[in-house]
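Expect chain and fold; thus:
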Amino acid sequence: MSIKKNYLYNLLLQILMMILPLITVPYVSHVLLPQGVGTFAYTSSIISYFSLLGILGIDTYGNKIIAMTRDNKRKMSENFFSLYFLQLMLTLSSVAGYLILVFFFIQQDKNIALIQTISLLGTVIDCSWFFFGIEMFKKIVTRNIVVKLLSLVAIFTFVKHQSDLSIYTYIMCLSIFLSALVMWFYLKGQIMIVRVTWKQIMSHLKPAFIYFLPGIALQIYFVLNKTMIGIVANNSEVGIFDYADKIRMVALSVVTSLGTVMLPRMAHTFAIGQIEKARDYLVKSLDFSTFLAIPLMFGLAGVAEEFIPWYMGTSFLKCIFVLMILSPTIVLMAWSGVFGTQYLVPLGKMREYTTSLYAGAIINFIVNLILIKPFGSIGASWGTFAAELTVTLVQLYLIRDIIPFRSIGPKTVDYFIAGFIMFLIVRIVGRSMGVSILTTVIQILLGSIVYFSILLVEGYLKHDGIIYHEIGKTLQKYRNR
């Protein structure tokens, strides 16, 4: 399947993965309030550590190994079974460890923490890394459409009062478990039933652990923020940061979808020795990611002041400032996604990749330690920004000789200019119209038109840029018909 189709399928997948909480945010935020939302986010952050320990990097490592051996069905099947048996042992141990923690050490919110075990069981049976490796994105998207729509209906049907936090937790956790379970029905015909030895199983432990090390760093500045806010501040501040972060991640999913698609393609391209082709993929991916990330950054910061009040309610007004601080991380994560996920990881440069993530994690922890106590969710958002900036700068230094930045630089400047003009227009509309759904819709539509129009004119004048070339290719196809 082509990269464009895989990107579109994975883009839909990533949006669906985030769309449920976003659709339910206006409803859930008014029903459960920041305290309930924060309690769910805080207990979810704890379960994330055990999920990370259980999967031990097999999700990323398995994706790569399956991609590299997909031309040999028997070898691919051996890799699948040996990897999954290793995952099964590790994740069951993780479940046992989590239950010990809950029963003996967690006093507050113990009931919610116990329900979260269901999502951890979803990690036990998760095999989606196999389908990512063979680039079968369509089936993954189909699964998520069904499960997410069912959970959406369940939330609006059964979550009616602030005391329904446990019901909400059941629904969210069951959606994760069922999403993982359904994928096993798609395995038929994709793999052969083969026997694997203990030696084959354990042969994956060390390389999977190498991929696990970056996961620790990622967990530190993706999840530790919520854990630290819950410990140092309170669950309401966790809820404010969590919902602002959810909005950011939905915008980011438009960009990071490309990285998920490109990882197996880049691994396969490197494996068969097509280095120049891989380099070409990398340059085009960086250009495209920047082209999308910059308007998302400016757009999110531009609409926040008029969007948050009607969308979440007055209890979440602090989300405006958190979202504005977090918005630049969309561009930073788009770049680090290309440098790390699409180059360092497929090429096996895990030491360099891990170094960049740990640098970000250390900075994040230090900034959180200093700022969360006096500023709560706003302090955590500055910690996230500092972490992403650090990761991007380190990776930029590590691959400085790979990407021709001189040729990409002028287009990046064009994107920033167009994005900034778009931001000014969006703010003028917001100040003029005030808080309303109509204001947000007009801001998004007008902002998009301004951004793409500016780039289209620039591309036409320079005969350069993604929009100009894509329109040109489309017109050429119609001429050839």
